[in-house]
């Protein structure tokens, strides 16, 4: 099993643009301030990479939310996660939920999780296009029981292909209280960690090698059906922008440095067709993953 890659909280200005953080929530037409309703983890904008770690649930330092407000959501309403900068690593984004046995603020996510939405790729003859955006909107299933839940967003960056590289999980959890729901028993349900394996096709996929099909890791998406109480209308998600991507990962991690430039930790520093900076910031070195991608680690 590949080990975890964790950065210190204060990585400095050079790392400020290295990745992205899901830090803001909107419920219906109400957009809450930063970290209100979203657990503020201690992992800054770094990924989680260890598939056996409990940090895969709500990120490093996100195991409890006693200082986080729990936001009311009516079953069937839309919810939106916002990130500080647009997601730019190619890969799927998913939304999961887990019902707390009591208070969401006291819940560590060790129970069962079900998936409510996937943003996978659109694959055509010219390649794959991913939704790379700064907001992700979906609807809370109208048939799930009332109660307090963790609502988890997960962006899986597969720009650093396994097994030579390590895919990266970017995660945040919101605390919500669902009202006006039904009595469905959402399935399939999974444990986290445990839901993702090194053998999953969506984990091992190589986006640089003629990608023609893709299966998002984890369980299938739960939807309300005829056998559920209060199934309501099918979810209606506001239009989302899907940006076409190429085999060269954007390089927003280059920052000025005395006498030249440097690339922040986890940023791209080389590869075929790459024209950006190749000098890594202090404390990291440029490591070649394949002919198309090298990364500061």
UniProtKB/TrEMBL annotation:
InterPro entries: AA9, AA9_LPMO, CBD, CBD_sf. One of its GO terms (biological process) is cellulose catabolic process. Gene3D superfamilies: 2.70.50.70. It is found in: Secreted. Keywords: Carbohydrate metabolism, Cellulose degradation, Copper, Disulfide bond, Hydrolase, Metal-binding, Monooxygenase, Oxidoreductase, Polysaccharide degradation, Secreted, Signal. One of its GO terms (molecular function) is metal ion binding. Its cofactor is Cu(2+). Belongs to the polysaccharide monooxygenase AA9 family. This is lytic cellulose monooxygenase (C4-dehydrogenating). It comes from Immersiella caudata.
């Amino acid at each position: 099993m590949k080990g975890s890659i964790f950065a210190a909280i204060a990585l400095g200005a050079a790392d400020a643009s290295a990745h992205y953080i899901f830090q803001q929530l909107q419920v219906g037409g109400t957009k809450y301030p930063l970290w209100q309703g979203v657990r503020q983890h201690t992992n800054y904008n770094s990924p989680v990479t260890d598939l056996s770690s409990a940090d895969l649930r709500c990120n490093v330092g996100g195991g409890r939310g006693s200082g986080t407000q729990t936001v009311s959501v009516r079953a069937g309403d839309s919810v939106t996660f916002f990130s500080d900068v647009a997601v730019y690593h190619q890969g799927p984004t998913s939304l999961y939920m887990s019902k707390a046995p009591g208070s969401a603020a006291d819940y560590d996510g060790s129970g069962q999780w079900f998936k409510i939405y996937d943003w996978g790729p659109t694959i055509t003859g010219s390649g794959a296009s991913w939704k790379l955006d700064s907001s992700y909107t979906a609807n809370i299933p109208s048939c799930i029981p009332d109660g307090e839940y963790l609502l988890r967003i997960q962006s899986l960056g597969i720009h650093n292909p396994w097994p030579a590289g390590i895919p990266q999980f970017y995660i945040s959890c919101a605390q919500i209280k669902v009202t006006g729901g039904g009595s469905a028993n959402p399935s399939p349900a999974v444990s986290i960690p445990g839901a993702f394996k090194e053998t999953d096709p969506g984990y091992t996929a190589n986006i640089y090698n003629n990608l023609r099909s893709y299966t998002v890791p984890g369980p299938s998406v739960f939807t309300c059906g005829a056998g559920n109480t209060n199934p309501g209308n099918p979810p209606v998600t506001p239009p989302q922008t899907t940006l076409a991507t190429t085999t060269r990962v954007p390089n927003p991690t280059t920052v000025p440095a005395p006498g030249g430039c440097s690339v922040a930790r986890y940023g791209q520093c080389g590869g075929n067709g790459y024209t950006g900076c190749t000098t890594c910031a202090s404390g990291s070195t440029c490591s070649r993953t394949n002919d198309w991608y090298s990364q500061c680690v």
